[in-house]
Amino acid sequence: MSKQLPTVPIFGVPFSKMSMDETVHYLTEAIEDGRLTHVITANPIMVMEALDKPEFAAVLRKADLIVPDGAGVVWAARTGGNPVAERVAGFDLMHRLMEQGEKRRWTAYLLGTTQEVIESAAEKLQLQYPQVRIVGCRNGFFGPDQDEEIVEEIRKLKPHLLFVARGMEKEAWNAQYKERLGVPFIMGVGGSFDIVSGKLKRAPILFQKLRLEWLYRLFQEPSRYKRMLALPKFVVKVLRNKENVTKPSPEAQ
């Protein structure tokens, strides 16, 4: 992660302290300059995963920017005495960057989820942002044997933006191929394409204000309950370790 950016570690994961506006400004400049920037939108579930799996923690540390996508991260930083400016939700950040692309005629590639969802999301985003050319899209169900072919396709198309929805388990793919892809901006977007396509609904404003988006998503996707069990564990860990929440991990020093 870039040294000049203000960050706060949450159990060793370095989160950006920038506001949404500052983040958009920083990323717009990076994209315009062609600097390869891998952004991870991280939440408490990912922090807990990093604590359990050193290999996932290593992937997070390779990111150029980790934004606090999750009210739990904002709360943990405040509880630990080193607050972030605000929540920077990946869904909103994606749209804010598409707005920037609209002004600058950027191009974008969408990768992940099912073919039906990704094609629907591409169609809707293209209608919403007609000046951003969506140069390609494909589903996220491919194995290592197809990596080469997909990387080569994206490389040739040279998009400014690459949005990836293949789950946190596949975040390592973005880090592994960042240099080869040569795309100025890569970001994992979680379930954003499901919402854009209309397959899922985004939580109403009331749920967002009450910081209960995770609960609304659980209503829509009950199969996520196992993953959601990390949330109460995260809360307990923060409350029990208040003085250590925002201490740098030895690896980060």
Rg estimate, integer Å? 17 Å
Looking at the structure, what is the overall shape?
globular
N-to-C SSE string, H for helix and E for strand: EEHEHHEHHEHEHEHEHHHHH
SS elements, strand count: 8
* Number of discrete helical segments: 13
User: What is the terminal separation in angstroms?
Assistant: 12 Å
How is the biggest beta sheet arranged?
6 strands, parallel
What share of the residues does DSSP label as strand, in percent?
15-25%
Report the uncertain regions: none
Number of separate domains = 1
Structural account:
One of its GO terms (biological process) is cell wall organization. Pathway: Cell wall biogenesis; teichoic acid biosynthesis. Catalyzes the conversion of GlcNAc-PP-undecaprenol into ManNAc-GlcNAc-PP-undecaprenol, the first committed lipid intermediate in the de novo synthesis of teichoic acid. The protein has 253 residues and is α/β, with parallel strands linked by helices. It has one domain (15-197). Helices cover 51% and strands 15% of the residues. It contains 13 helices and eight strands. The protein has helices at 20-33, 44-52, 54-62, 71-79, 90-104, 115-128, 144-157, 171-181, 192-197, 205-209, 213-220, 225-228, 230-240; strands spanning 7-10, 13-16, 37-42, 65-68, 107-112, 133-138, 161-165, 185-188. The chain is globular and about 50 Å long.
